[in-house]
Task: structure prediction
Amino acid sequence: MNFCSKTAALCMAVIVSACGQGPSEPRAKQPVSSVAEFVLPIPISNNAVAAAEGPDGPTLYSFNGLKSGKGWKDASNAAFACIISIKDCEEIASVPVNEGRLASSAVTVADKIYLFGGYTVAEDGDEVSTPEVFAFDPQTQEYKRLADMPTPVDDMVVLPYRGRYIYLVSGWHDEGNVSLVQLYDTQSDSWSMATEFPGKPVFGHAGGLADNSMIITDGVAVAGLVDGKRKFAAAPFSWRGDIDPDNPAKITWRAIDAHPGGAQYRMAAMGDNDRGLILFAGGGDNPYNYDGIGYDGVPAKPTDRIFGYDLKTDQWAELGKLAEPSMDHRALVKSGDDHYIIGGMEADQAVTARIMKFRIDD
Result:
């Protein structure tokens, strides 16, 4: 995500017309959403998030991200743990990197949290995708450096599979988006390549995986050049990837209808195995760089939408609204029956320490 290419006056966020919109059917019960009774120690956005069993029970974790100043100096490597039972958040050991990271991703597999990549921002605006992978042990609060990503990416979608594998779908690499689907094996600490993402390569997209199927939607594509400067376009397209149960590297992709309501940037998302549902919440209405101002100069506004894709019926479903609009997220996490959004940006692109939760009842 070269800073100059992303902030040049000629960068325009062009909304690409969707091929069509699928049916949206309301579910029988709406989620109950609220603002949690605890907050992060500091406001943080674009942070990697995960939930895991910590020393004091179920715990929400936040790594890296952007502090409230929203300048290049505000990229952070701080980490926080929020113990759900006592409704308390505390700072824990920072991610062991020399510079802060934006747009990194985290996911929990077999009681460990795996933290991937992100990008650094230099004083001159230069942005570099970073290759680091760490395993964080919630019980000891120790980080272990693992095999680097073959192709460093940031603003990608990261998905756990079968308690062993992790997919990194598309994302930005230094000077452009990639179509790669990188597959990490947590048991062997090794990488391979899965079937490439067939859609426009994007960054800031969202997705989830349940059973053997993933949904990838939206994001930002490079839509050509104007006077030698990249033009960025929202990409309101959606894809379903069905994984071969006998070969995790083999994915059969097919285009599905774009979700109703228009493309959103950096939504919180995850797969819900219990319901065969891929959940999406929040997001920004206009693609932007890390400060929340669109590439077209128009400030992004957060949404309060909660919706999902039902893998069994192959349909989108509107699910309700968040307690407050929110954007600039890396993922949605679940602990118990509750789904959580940790930090992010609220109205007027303000970085927040707020934690929200919602529950979908059967």
